[in-house]
């Protein structure tokens, strides 16, 4: 059975995910994009995966720098997510927020819920995307009252202390 892309995308809209800004800096320059296709792989060694479309304008920069920072957004940072998710020039994206330099030299977002500073340890190509396996070298946490998730094709604030069932 063949699944068409519209059916797949409609079903994926039912899968909530944290909103992240992925950044890099290095010999190929500074770049960043918004992603929800991020997840943990293992805690030994601490590793995340990030999916990046090979046709994205930022792909060569990430591919050459081989380091990145996954910045998980808090509620109220929707505008920043939109900036990094569109065609806004790179310098305007970074000018819209405060940044610190992480252990790898990648920009770490001030006020992110968590920032995972990583070296890209492996790349696997699947279809139109590269899956970047990212070994974490440093983590910064800035707990805030609410996280930001993408669900049903829109942003939602997610309270940090949800009641247990």
From TrEMBL:
Coiled coil: none annotated. It catalyses: FMNH2 + NAD(+) = FMN + NADH + 2 H(+). Pfam families: Flavin_Reduct. GO terms for molecular function: FMN binding; FMN reductase (NADH) activity; riboflavin reductase (NADPH) activity. One of its GO terms (biological process) is nitrogen utilization. InterPro entries: Flavin_Rdtase-like_dom, NADH-dep_flavin_reductase, RutF, Split_barrel_FMN-bd. HAMAP family: RutF. This is FMN reductase (NADH) RutF. It comes from Kosakonia radicincitans. The gene is rutF.
């Amino acid at each position: 059975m063949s699944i068409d892309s519209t059916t797949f995308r409609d079903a994926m809209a039912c899968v909530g995910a944290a909103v992240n800004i992925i950044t890099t800096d290095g010999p190929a320059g500074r770049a960043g994009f918004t992603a929800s296709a991020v997840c943990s792989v293992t805690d030994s060694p601490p590793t995340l995966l990030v999916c990046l479309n090979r046709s994205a304008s930022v792909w060569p920069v990430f591919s050459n720098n081989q380091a990145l920072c996954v910045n998980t957004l808090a509620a109220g940072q929707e505008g920043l997510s939109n900036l990094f998710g569109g065609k806004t020039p790179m310098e305007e994206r970074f000018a819209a927020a405060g940044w610190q330099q992480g252990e790898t030299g990648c920009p770490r977002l001030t006020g992110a819920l968590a920032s995972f500073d990583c070296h890209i340890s492996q790349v696997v190509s699947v279809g139109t995307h590269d899956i970047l396996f990212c070994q974490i070298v440093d983590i910064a946490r800035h707990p805030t009252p609410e996280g930001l998730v993408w669900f049903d094709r829109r942003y939602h604030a997610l309270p940090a202390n949800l009641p247990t069932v």
